[in-house]
């Protein structure tokens, strides 16, 4: 950390001098008071230059542009000044002024509706504003309008900026794959153009993505890269944001006093700049930090201040988060009536806005509230909702998506480097043809081939090593997720049920113990599956087929259901990786369980065949069937679909009342 700080100090000074020189140059033009387009452009650029460090002075220069004389030649500059003022007021939470200046910019741009750059500035400005106040669909609408413009006219850096802004909306909508894709598209462009402002934003966005997935070391690395650029650029607003992001990491890893220091520093900078949204966020983060430090009264005060600031700015994006933590703090402080009201409102807002991770947090806090008061039935219902919404987030899948995108980006860069190397060598070869004899030419070509072969061999090794590491990491995440989700959920339920049994005193409630017995058996069964899947003796497909037949006999024979296995010849020689074998068995197991429990069938056909690079599993019964439109999809069907997706394939369920059910899985072998 100390080395990074020293490097930052070394680079800051020249850039501050450069910015000061630019300001002096622009102010010199303005002082001449020519009242021409050069004067208007200088005023506009002064405002833009000061936007990230002094909003008040920035706004004054934009007002000067708007107060220039009535002349169609100034309309373009005035429209841009109005858009910038709308953006500044959006950051300060003054919404009436935001809409006034956006309308003014619309009027001013009528003099040249074909100006693509001006159209980009307007659409992008509106997208940023609507994202800030939580109107994400409107934000996406304007960003997509901006992306539809001529990319050459608006410039590659601005296209990359749009991808960054889109990634922020996707993050709020919890569409993490689109978030990662948009972020890396922006990074690819900014790396080519070496745009420091753009790189500062994209590294901050990558840090936020890794922070969300709890990859704290990677998150800190990207945040520090962003901070380096922010300091070089004199971007006080961006610097305060990164300070807050670093503070979040310190809070999560237990360095709460350091987190408090960083949050406070960020808050002071944002209050000075008049950025209401960011002030509200830092007040909320300080409240969370105080809660972890068990200073609950301070936590309560900061949550309430955050609510007030964001409400004044008409920003509802963080309502569910703040209410969930406010309710938890009120519960701890024995403010029962206020606590349950805050928690219930938090869950409603989160579900309504489809923010499932926030909904899971709210229901967890509701569960703890009911447990403290001995209302175990209500606690059990809240826990069921907590796990349902938490499972929909799919952290393991998100980690895999991020690693996939990062790997693809890294490999693309490697391919570009190899292509450039080839081109350079080809030019060298042509030059040697002119200058040197055939002997030197042959030597050069030979050296080139050796170098190329070395690069290709190294690339092959790196790719294989990376694949192996990703497979190991994927397996670890999968095992951790299964142990946490399946066993953790069941153990928690058993804990609550046992508390209910104890609460009844001397009265024996056999139904409670029956439920505990059923859940314990289910947990043992799941644990057995996990242990079987990771044992090295079960790596072959032959072992998997044997276990499938064993399970079919175990579940169907006691029910009197006949069944027929049809397995394509040579299936034992087919190679499937561990994750695909495991998901194939769990889909098979869930399908047979559903048949045995609900189908009332007499016979079952099971077919497994391989065609080209795909496997197909068909499970068909002659039971009573069901209407897919009428039946409520439970965790079983959802898990089967999710596992099929994890295999890179798809699953089709066809069923009609009194006509049996057919389940068909199709997935790639490799």
TrEMBL record:
CDD domains: HATPase_UhpB-NarQ-NarX-like. GO terms for molecular function: phosphorelay sensor kinase activity; protein dimerization activity. The chain crosses the membrane at residues 441-458. Residues 478-670 form the Histidine kinase domain. TPR repeats lie at residues 120-153, 200-233, 240-273, 280-313. The keyword Ribonucleoprotein does not apply. Residues 413-440 form a coiled coil. The keyword Ribosomal protein does not apply. It comes from the Bacteria. SUPFAM superfamilies: ATPase domain of HSP90 chaperone/DNA topoisomerase II/histidine kinase, TPR-like. Pfam families: HATPase_c, HisKA_3, TPR_12. Keywords: Coiled coil, Kinase, Membrane, TPR repeat, Transferase, Transmembrane, Transmembrane helix, Two-component regulatory system. InterPro entries: HATPase_C_sf (IPR036890), HATPase_dom (IPR003594), His_kinase_dom (IPR005467), Sensor_HK_TwoCompSys (IPR050482), Sig_transdc_His_kin_sub3_dim/P (IPR011712), TPR-like_helical_dom_sf (IPR011990), TPR_rpt (IPR019734). GO terms for cellular component: membrane. This is Histidine kinase. It comes from Cecembia rubra. The lineage of its organism: Bacteria, Pseudomonadati, Bacteroidota, Cytophagia, Cytophagales.
């Amino acid at each position: 950390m100390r080395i990074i700080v020293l490097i930052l100090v070394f680079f800051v000074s020249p850039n501050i001098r450069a910015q000061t020189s630019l300001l002096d140059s622009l102010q010199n033009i303005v002082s001449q008071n020519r009242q021409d387009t050069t004067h208007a452009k200088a005023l506009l650029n002064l405002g833009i230059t000061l936007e990230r460090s002094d909003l008040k002075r920035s706004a004054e220069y934009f007002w000067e542009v708007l107060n220039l004389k009535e002349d169609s030649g100034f309309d373009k500059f005035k429209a841009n000044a109005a858009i910038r003022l709308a953006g500044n007021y959006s950051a300060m939470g003054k919404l009436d002024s935001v809409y006034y200046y956006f309308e003014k910019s619309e009027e001013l741009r009528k003099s040249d509706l074909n100006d693509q750059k001006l159209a980009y500035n307007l659409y992008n400005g509106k997208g940023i504003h609507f994202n800030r106040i939580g109107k994400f669909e409107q934000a996406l609408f304007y960003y997509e309008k901006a992306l539809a413009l001529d990319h050459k006219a608006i410039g590659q850096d601005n296209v990359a900026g749009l991808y960054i802004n889109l990634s922020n909306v996707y993050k709020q909508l919890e569409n993490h794959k689109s978030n990662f894709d948009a972020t890396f598209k922006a990074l690819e462009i900014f790396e080519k153009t070496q745009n420091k402002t753009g790189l500062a934003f994209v590294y901050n966005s990558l840090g936020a993505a890794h922070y969300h997935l709890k990859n704290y070391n990677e998150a800190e690395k990207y945040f520090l890269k962003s901070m380096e650029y922010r300091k070089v650029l004199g971007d006080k607003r961006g610097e305060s944001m990164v300070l807050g992001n670093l503070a979040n990491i310190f809070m999560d890893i237990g360095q709460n006093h350091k987190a408090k220091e960083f949050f406070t520093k960020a808050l002071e900078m944002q209050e000075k700049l008049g950025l209401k949204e960011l002030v509200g966020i830092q007040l909320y983060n300080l409240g969370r930090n105080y809660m972890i430090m068990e200073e609950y009264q301070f936590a309560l005060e900061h949550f309430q201040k955050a609510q007030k600031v964001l409400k004044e700015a008409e920003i509802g994006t963080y309502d569910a988060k703040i209410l969930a933590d406010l309710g938890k703090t009120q519960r701890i402080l024995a403010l029962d009536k206020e606590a349950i009201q805050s928690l219930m409102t938090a869950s409603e807002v989160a579900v309504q806005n489809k923010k499932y991770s926030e909904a899971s947090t709210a229901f967890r806090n509701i569960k703890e509230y009911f447990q403290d008061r001995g209302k175990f039935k209500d606690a059990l219902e809240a826990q069921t909702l907590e796990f349902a919404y938490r499972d929909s987030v799919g952290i393991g899948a998100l980690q895999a998506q991020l690693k996939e995108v990062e790997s693809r980006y890294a490999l693309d860069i490697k391919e570009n480097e190899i292509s450039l190397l080839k081109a350079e060598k080809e030019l060298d070869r042509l030059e040697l043809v002119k200058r040197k004899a055939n002997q030197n030419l042959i030597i050069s070509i030979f050296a080139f081939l050796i170098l190329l072969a070395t690069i290709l061999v190294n690339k092959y090794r790196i790719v294989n090593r990376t694949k192996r590491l990703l497979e190991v990491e994927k397996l670890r995440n999968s095992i951790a997720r299964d142990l946490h989700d399946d066993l953790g959920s069941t153990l928690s339920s058993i804990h609550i049920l046992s508390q209910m049994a104890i609460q009844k005193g001397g009265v024996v409630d056999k139904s409670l113990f029956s439920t505990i017995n059923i859940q314990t058996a289910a947990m043992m069964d799941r644990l057995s599956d996990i242990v079987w899947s990771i044992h090295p003796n079960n790596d072959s497909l032959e072992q998997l087929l044997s276990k499938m037949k064993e399970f079919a006999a175990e579940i169907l024979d006691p029910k009197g259901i006949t069944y027929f296995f049809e397995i394509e010849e040579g299936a034992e020689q087919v190679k499937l990786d561990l994750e695909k074998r495991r998901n194939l068995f769990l889909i098979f197991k869930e399908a047979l369980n559903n048949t045995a429990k609900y189908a009332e069938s007499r016979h079952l056909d099971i077919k497994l065949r391989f065609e080209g690079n795909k496997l197909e599993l068909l499970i068909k019964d002659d039971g009573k069937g069901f209407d897919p439109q009428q039946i409520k999809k439970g965790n079983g069907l959802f898990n089967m679909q999710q596992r099929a997706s994890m295999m890179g394939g798809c699953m089709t369920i066809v069923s009609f009342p009194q006509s049996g059910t057919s389940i068909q899985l199709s997935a790639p072998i490799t």
